[in-house]
Amino acid sequence: MKTASTRNINIDCLRYEPAIDSEPRRQAYEVPFTDDMSVLQGLQYIKDNLDGSLTFRWSCRMAICGSCGMMLNGKPALACESFLRDFYPGGVRVEPLNHFPIIRDLVIDQRDFLVKLESIKPFLIPGDRKAIADGTFLQTPEQMEEYYPFSQCINCLLCYAACPQYGLNPAFTGPGALALLHRYNADSRDAGTRERMEIVNAEDGVWSCTLVGYCSEVCPKAVDPARAVNVNKINSTKDFFRHFLMPK
Amino acid sequence: MIMKTYVRPMGWWWLHNPFYRWYMVRESSCIVITAYAVILLWGLMCLVEGRLAFDAWRESLASPWAVGFHLVALPLVTYHSWTWFKVMPKTLPFISIAGRRLADRTIIVSGVVAAIAASILVFLAIFVSVPRISP
Hints:
Number of strands of chain B: 2
Strand content of chain B: under 5%
Number of domains of chain A: 2
Largest sheet of chain B: 2 strands, antiparallel
Radius of gyration of chain A: 21 Å
Distance between the termini of chain A: 74 Å
Distance between the termini of chain B: 81 Å
Largest sheet of chain A: 5 strands, mixed
Oligomer: heterodimer
Strand order of the largest sheet of chain A: 2-1-5-3-4
Strand order of the largest sheet of chain B: 1-2
Shape of chain A: elongated
Order of helices and strands of chain B: HHHEEH
CATH superfamily of the largest domain in chain A: Alpha-helical ferredoxin
């Protein structure tokens, strides 16, 4: 069996230790790698062999948990599905996701997103109460297609790191939460649209989006949050006129 | 618990990524498009005023400044049109025809083809009418 060849690559990490540093600094590591090694494995090599203090989030290693989102050479990406071979020989600059406060090294503070995620009511709000004995809520494949792509979100926050409007105005609900909001509003089993429209219509709702479109570009699950946000500009406009025709 | 965090500044954010740079080109091209629309409206007003005013407007378009402006405006308007169609699918709900979802690429290509066809029609209309309105 042929052994995989090992090469060395430079991994340049942003470091920030809140107890010591007043602002972030950089630290570079020379890491041996094989062709099948991801950036995440490179970071794990550093932690295990070179510097145990390097801090980063990770879990599943297979692009489904959404924990290892980072800026790789200035672009938001999942470290587990980005390969070191693709950055060779230039090396890779690793930074925490843009637009979020840094807690330590490559770890960001996600609380702002979690509050927004909760605010959009990310669950089905059924219109008709049904007894369990009456069976499940059925829907056709066409009805499922309306929301399915938006349900693929893994909350990795790459879209937030890609969105300059969120960076400039952190009050903006942002692409990820709005895509999930649309996922439930577009579901034929859901009757919670009216409850969610307040978030859509708000100044910091869909109207804070200027359709940069980079969120959809970097999404590892092809959720297309830019579409979810901009389709809801139409829904928000309809809702505005509906209020004139049918005031509460 | 109060946690000490570091918030990175956003200064010159659009210079750090080619995607943002092209976005800024798209957005700033609106200024040129507005100027171009004003020039066209001015031409229409001259047309309403009479032949002398319209001829003076056409003559002013031959000045080096006007030619320079149009040389800058043409690529920017072309780029802006392209980006308009590129983002068009993101502004539309899913469209299904005979049970099959219309692909984003189809929407983009249809828009670009329609824009090219409209441009050719306008060009032909001008080409046919110019000898009649020339002095």
